[in-house]
Each structure stands twice: as C-alpha cells, then as structure tokens.
Design goal:
This protein has 604 residues and is an alpha/beta fold. Helices cover 62% and strands 10% of the residues. The protein has a domain of 272 residues: ABC transporter type 1, transmembrane domain (ABC transporter transmembrane region fold, Up-down Bundle). The chain is elongated, with a radius of gyration of 35 Å. The C terminus is likely disordered. The structure holds adenosine-5'-diphosphate and magnesium ion (MG). The site of magnesium ion has 3 residues, from helix 15.
Length: 604
C-alpha cells in the first residue's frame, strides 16, 4: 500500500506538522462561538490565582505585628480576612470550573459534529483503508482527548500563571535578594522539560496506535463472534489481543519512566531553592536586613509558588497528549472526499429518460491493479440487464460506479447522455436503489427501517411496500406490528425476512433504477422463491441491473453481459448467447449440470 496515502489514518506521525500559530489559526473556528465564555474563564483565573498571593502577603504584617510590634490589633483580623478571601476564591473556582467545562464541552461537541459530518461524507475508499478502531478513536475519542486536555491544562496553566505572578510579586516585595535565589533555581527546570518533550511525543504516538488496534480487536470480536466460536478461534484472538495489550502496557510504563523523573527532579530543584533561601535568609536576618516576619511570609509564598511547579511534569504529558490528539484531528479534517468537494451548481437528476451508458470504463481500487478494463455497454430505460461471470470478475464493482461510490480511472458513465459527474451526487443516488446479498438494517423498529427508504412515506405506502415484499403476514403476527424492534443488524429476523425488509425499503424509495447484487444468494431455496417474487415486484416498471447468482433468474433479461476478469467478454440475450457456444453457454451448462447433481460448480 502507498505509504503516503492521505486517506490512511493509521500512519501516526510523531513530528508536529503544525507550528503553534498555524495550530491556533486552525483552532480559531472552534474557539469563536465560545469566545466570550473563554475570556470570562481566563479572567476568573486571575482572582483564583491572585488570591493565593494575597493570603501569603498577609503573613508578613501578621508576623511583624505580633512579634515585632507586640500589638495584636491587626493580627486578630487576619484569620477572618484569610477565611473571607478563601470564600471569595472558592466561589471564583466554582464559577470558573463551570465556565471552563462549558467551553471545553462545547468545543468538543462542535468538533465531534464536524468530524461526524466528515465521516458521513468520506469516500467509500476511506472505509476500505481504515479499520473500525481507527474510525472510533479518530472521530470520537480524539475530540475529547484534545479538548479536555487543552481546556484543563490551559485553565491550570493560567491560574498558576497568575498565582505565580502574584507570588513572585510577594517574594520581590519581601526581599529581592532571596527572590533571586528562589526564582534563579527554576532556570534548571528547562533542561529536563525539553528532554522529556522529545521522548514523550514519540511514545504518545505509539500508544495511540496500539490503543487503536485494541479498539479494532473489540469490534472484530463483536461482529465476528459466530465465526470465532464455530472455528474455535478464541485462543488465536486472545493471543493477538495479549500482544496488543502488553505492548500498550510496555509503552505506558516507558512513558512513565520517561516522564515521571521530572517530578522528583522538580522536587529536588525546589528543595535546593528552599535550602538556598534558608541559608542566605539566616544571614539576612542576623544582619538585620530583613525581619523574621518578612522571612516567614517569604517562605510561605515560596512554598505556594513551588507546589504547582512540582506537578508540571504530569501536566506536561497531558498537554502534549492533547496537542497530538488535536494534530490527528486536523489530519481528519484535512481528508479529501468527493462528496464534500463537489461543486454546488450541479444538475439535479430527476428520473432517467433514455439510458445508462458505460463508455470505455477502466477502474482500479488501489491505483495499480485494473479491476475493470475497457467496459462499454448500454442499459436502455425500462430494460433489465444482467451481469454474470466469474467470482471476483468485477460485477459488483461495475454497479458501485453508477451511484459514484467510487470514481473511475478513465472512461465515462453517462445517464441520458450526460456524464454522471455533472449531476449532484445526492440526486444521482436518489434515483438508484440497491439491494445486496446482505443488507444493513438499523437498530430500531421495522417501521423506522422502512422509513429510511422514504421518510415521508404515508401509512398506505408502507402497507403497499410490506405487501409487495410479502411481509404483511409476518408483520401481522408480531405483537407490536410495524413497531416491533428488530435489534441491531436485524438479528431478530431470518435471512429471508431481512432481505424482504430491505426490498420493502427499496420499494418505498421508489427510485427509477434498481440494482440487485446477488440479492438471493445467501438464502435457502424456500425463502429464495418468495424473495425472488418480492424482487420481481420491486423491478416492475423500473430500469434494472441484476447480478445473478442463479442463471434461471436472469434468463428473461433483455441483455446479459458476461464479465470475466474485468473484461466484458460477451453480450446478448439468453438465446443469442447460448447459440454462440461461448463463455455464457459454458456457465449455463455447468449450472445445468450442477442442478442435476452431476458436477461440482465453482461459486459463480
Ligand atoms: N473495496 C475493495 N478494495 C479493493 N479491492 C476490491 C474491493 N472490492 C473488490 N475488490 C477486488 O476487485 C475485484 C472485483 O471484485 P467484485 O467487483 O466484487 O467482483 P464480483 O462482484 O464480480 O465477484 C476482485 O479482485 C476484488 O478482490
Ligand atoms: Mg460481487
């Protein structure tokens, strides 16, 4: 696979590709709607941080008042003042928490909306290239990681910034000499931080990759549980999971080893600061430069200043984690998709009048291996065209090109003589109903699933659709009728019922073009018959393209196209093709023989 494929999200870069200015500029659209609250949140951090300094600054007059002036008038007030200040501070903390949570959640919510829109519009090829785990992590969790980390860290940083500013002010006010020592030692903190910075972003990128793989494993287990059990794959899957989860464990231990020494180093550095202040402070007191009250106030402010600095290591990892999550979000927001970039002034397709036409169509999924080679054919309006041929020959691919689920490499697909690229994608898709071998049903009621075909359907239309799909008897017997919940993926229905529900949904959609891709091939003979009758109802009066599983169902087609290995090798109606004694007749005879139980028939 192409390493530089921008649609593949599993390639985690550990290098920041955005400068902080660029990063901010990109983030601005998300900040803008909450800007007022953001500013309020920032302003509230001033009293939260600043009142620390105020409390500390009262200690000097308190001590001086008591110890030097031997007068306790002012000192008596101080306890009340401190309590009053902390109450104010507490209220500010509460309000600022509310505001910040609002800002953070609002940004995360808006981000998730944008990301989900991106996901809905993404090309199918995007889904071919990325695992479900990647989708969940990139589109859901990253938004939370990015915003919660950014908001909490910014809040923490800002309030600590104001409190540090205030406390440094208190230090300077009390003694500039001691301040020089206290703040001077902090210079030594820059070196370890920059070491950690480099190591940590690599580890975070790795841990994200392993975490994503782990999510995929859960999803795989959920959707593949029947196969897992019937093939006894528990051990194999557990072993793979085990490798993943242990890798994740190792990387998180490595991250802890790489970063957690920062805490103790800060601890020692600040202790050196305190020691230096004590050592020099003793000299200053004994030589009468400062009073002991000044000194006590200084030490109190110093301890307050140092406390947040000690936790800087943990905050730093948190901040780095969210910055990288934000960077991953940007790569998702940068995804290119055909639907999103389509021009606004497209024609709207309203029914087809003459034909669907393939002209010299070439197609590959990966840009290398040609899956379709020079395919040309015409489907006149109202006709039934069948595609047959070897498995993997390219039949499904051909049908996927009509609603533009994929883009052609070369050639054209025309509807009524106009390139389908000239029509808006949504109008094009409105004109086409597809029924596959396995049709996705949504979690919800039968009615809800039907309404996905047409959300304005009347009760009468629903009834007709249900009848045409021979579901009326079944629905009548259900305790809640149409409002019966069928469960995620329609698990409460049999294969044939699911298929008929999908057909009823297509009937409700009432589009002029119908594409059936082996719609009955997963069914047993009995349900196949009834589903086939429902399909016949669906095809009535419409332009249809049918990929046939069993040739008996397409013998009446107006035209049969034989697609072998990406090439159109034969076309004509049943009688014409049999006369040619070519590929079709080989296929036909093999199925005929199979029916009589004489030979083995490879999957058609
Ligand atoms: N989403 C996909 N990504 C990459 N290759 C694909 C994809 N779908 C099908 N192919 C490949 O394209 C070829 C044609 O497949 P398909 O159109 O499904 O054949 P058919 O429907 O005739 O059995 C096959 O070789 C298949 O492996
Ligand atoms: Mg197929």
């Amino acid at each position: 696979m192409n390493k530089k494929d921008p649609q593949r999200l599993d390639i985690v870069s550990s290098k920041a590709s955005y400068s902080s200015f660029e990063g901010f500029k990109r983030f601005w659209p998300f900040l803008k709607p909450v800007f007022f609250w953001l500013v309020l949140g920032v302003i509230l951090t001033i009293p939260v941080g600043g009142l620390d300094a105020a409390v500390a600054s009262f200690l000097k007059p308190f001590m001086d008042n008591v110890m030097v002036e031997k007068d306790s008038e002012f000192a008596k007030q101080v306890p009340y003042i401190i309590v009053a200040f902390t109450i104010v501070q507490g209220i500010c903390i509460y309000v600022s928490n509310l505001v910040n949570t609002y800002v953070g959640n609002r940004i995360a919510t808006n981000l998730k909306k944008d990301l989900y829109k991106k996901l809905l519009l993404a090309d199918i090829s995007f889904f071919d290239k990325n695992t479900s785990g990647i989708v969940i992590n990139r589109f859901a969790s990253d938004a939370d990681t990015a915003t919660s980390g950014l908001v909490s860290n910014t809040k923490l940083f800002l309030s600590k910034f104001w409190s540090s500013l205030g406390l440094v002010g208190v230090l300077l006010y009390n003694s500039w000499q001691l301040s020089l020592i206290a703040v001077g030692v902090l210079i030594f903190l820059f070196i370890p931080i920059s070491i950690v910075r480099k190591k940590v972003s690599k580890s975070i990128a790795k841990s994200v990759r392993y975490g994503t793989q782990l999510s995929s494993r859960y999803i795989e287990t959920y959707s593949g549980i029947r196969i897992i059990k019937s093939f006894n794959l528990q051990k194999i899957l557990f072993d793979k999971f085990n490798v993943n989860v242990e890798e994740l464990f190792k990387i998180s231990m490595k991250m802890t080893r790489d970063t957690n020494w920062l805490g103790p180093v800060m601890h020692v550095v600040t202790a050196v600061g305190v020691a230096g202040v004590l050592y020099y402070g003793l000299h200053l007191i004994t030589s009468g430069v400062i009073t002991s009250g000044t000194f006590v106030a200084f030490i109190a402010a110093l301890i307050m200043l140092y406390t947040p600095i000690k936790s800087i290591g943990n905050n730093y990892v948190g901040l780095q984690t969210s910055m990288l999550a934000l960077e991953r979000i940007y790569t998702v927001l940068d995804l290119y998709s055909v639907e999103e970039t389509e021009k606004q002034d497209r024609k709207s397709l309203k029914g087809i009048k003459s034909s669907i036409c393939f002209e010299h169509v070439d197609f590959s999924y990966d840009g290398h291996r040609k899956v379709l080679k020079d395919i040309s054919f015409e489907v006149p309006v109202g006709s039934k065209v069948a595609l047959v041929g070897n498995s993997g020959g390219g039949k499904s691919t051909i049908t996927a090109l009509i609603p533009r689920l994929y883009e052609l490499d070369s050639g054209k697909v025309l509807i009524d003589g106009t390139d389908i690229k000239e029509y808006s994608i949504s109008s094009l898709r409105d004109n086409i109903s597809m029924v596959f071998q396995d049709n996705f049903l949504f979690d919800g009621t039968i009615r809800e699933n039907l309404m996905y075909g047409n959300d304005n359907a009347t009760e009468e239309q629903i009834e007709i659709a249900i009848k045409s799909a021979f579901l009326d008897d079944f629905v009548k017997k259900l305790p809640n009728g149409l409002d019966t919940v069928i469960g995620e993926r329609g698990l409460l229905l049999s294969g044939g019922q699911k298929q008929r529900l999908a057909i009823a949904r297509a009937i409700l959609k009432n589009s002029p073009v119908v594409i059936l891709d082996e719609a009955t091939s997963a069914l047993d003979n009995k349900s196949e018959k009834i589903v086939q009758r429902a399909l016949d109802k669906l095809m009535e009066g419409r332009t249809t393209i049918v990929i046939a599983h069993r040739l008996s169902t397409i013998m009446d087609a107006d035209k049969i196209l034989v697609i072998n290995d990406g090439k159109l090798v034969e076309s004509g109606n049943h009688a014409e093709l049999l006369e040619k004694h070519g590929a079709y007749s080989v296929l036909y005879n093999s199925q005929f023989a199979f029916k009589n139980g004489q030979t083995e028939q490879p999957d058609n």
